[in-house]
Amino acid sequence: MQQKITREQALEYHAQGRPGKIQVVPTKQTKTQRDLSMAYSPGVAEPCMEIHHNKDDVYKYTAKGNLVAVISNGTAVLGLGDIGPEAGKPVMEGKGVLFKVFADIDVFDIEIDEKDPVKFCEIVRSLEPTFGGINLEDIKAPECFYIEQTLKEQMNIPVMHDDQHGTAIISAAALINALELQGKRMEDVRIVVNGAGAAAISCASLYIALGVRGENIIMFDSKGVLHHGRTDITTEKKQFTCADNHWTLETAMQGADVFVGLSKGNVITGDMVRGMAANPAIFAMANPTPEISYEEATAARADLIMATGRSDYPNQVNNVLGFPYIFRGALDVRAKHINEEMKLAAVHALAELTRLPVPESVLHAYAIKELAFGPDYIIPKPLDPRLLAKVAPAVAKAAMETGLARIAIEDWAAYEDSLNKRIG
Ligand SMILES: NC(=O)C1=CN([C@@H]2O[C@H](COP(=O)(O)OP(=O)(O)OC[C@H]3O[C@@H](n4cnc5c(N)ncnc54)[C@H](OP(=O)(O)O)[C@@H]3O)[C@@H](O)[C@H]2O)C=CC1
Ligand SMILES: CC(=O)C(=O)O
Ligand SMILES: [Mg+2]
Q1: Active-site residue 40, yes or no?
Q2: Pairing relation of β-strands 217-221 and 224-225?
Q3: pTM over 0.95
Q4: Is 82 annotated among the ligand-binding residues?
Q5: Is the complex ipTM more than 0.95?
Q6: Any idea where the Malic enzyme NAD-binding domain is (predicted)?
Q7: pLDDT tens, residue by residue, 120-157
Q8: Which of 77, 91, 98, 260 should be mutated for ligand 2, with most atoms under 8 A from CB?
């Protein structure tokens, strides 16, 4: 098992030196009078007027094309709940760091004190001149569905709610690999999904797109199983209601092939794990505390493939494996949106990368001697430098093939080379 960190260490890490985790760095020299005349007045007026005459030149003369907004209102921060926009800021800064180090994308994290979805959309929509893309983050369901849909319709830059689609993409790649290792097929498996929020609904929908039968998914929210008789069900939950209102988490877990947790920490037990079908898989993805600990789940049975959302255990099923590369590919072809084809391209690129030999640098970063496709390695490691050149081109290609790209990549080898240089 990997190194544990303490509360004190985490607080000290964030407070030490310049507080927080991110800063703005100029890209041009500002050492001489001439430099200042270029960077500010009078030189800056020239690009202003070029952009005034041709709005697209904003991509040529400003940082817009490589700048993503990570935007939250703090209503569903990790599994910590509605802790407010300020309290969500460390997460948004963290996403900014990951965008930068994994895909060389610059980020402004924007925490907005607004829960009303209509007003929230008005604020975000008004930011379009500044950004090349919008990563919505940690906004609770059901508001997040309206917000993402509305902004996608109203904005001409890629908008993605990462908790929905990033999570769905990564866990779908992990599911493809876990089922192959366990000798099971999408169309046969019974899946218990605990949680019916942003992440859970989107994950279950993508599993269905990959072949899982809707009737084989049993979904729970904080009030119990989603069933036809409930009158408190939102539109998004409705598609996952079942006829049987008697399911409890305990009974649903009996004989289940897969458990997907996108809810709260510590809600399933070793006994429930023991009751699952032979060769099961558990993706306990609640952060920071999974639905069951890695130790308890793996102690319950030996034929289990176990994944969590955390960095300190094998099989980290976490959207960090997706958002930097999905946005990199989308930005590089100036995609108007992120569509299903682009998401599926990312799923398959991630699933395939896991089957390739793991480079020495990854073993070194995780202080492990060997790693190969198997129960403890169903998804690439976040510190794998190959992710960028594998996933971003797949996404960019899918955008071009589906008519969403505003600029084309012609030389794919040169593009991959340039990606590798970005993260050096
Ligand atoms: N590993 C990863 O990459 C990711 C992990 N997550 C994790 O998933 C979890 C949910 O995030 P998100 O979807 O954004 O949040 P939401 O607030 O949108 O959804 C939370 C869902 O969990 C349900 N829930 C809460 N408590 C329970 C319970 N005891 N049993 C069953 N369901 C419960 C809620 O029920 P109700 O609808 O009744 O309120 C709701 O449907 C968080 O822990 C988050 O950290 C999220 C994104 C990525
Ligand atoms: C990983 C993530 O986005 C979350 O837990 O909300
Ligand atoms: Mg999140």
Answers
A1: yes
A2: antiparallel
A3: yes
A4: no
A5: yes
A6: 164-400
A7: 999 999 999 999 999 999 999 999 999 999 999 999 99
A8: 91
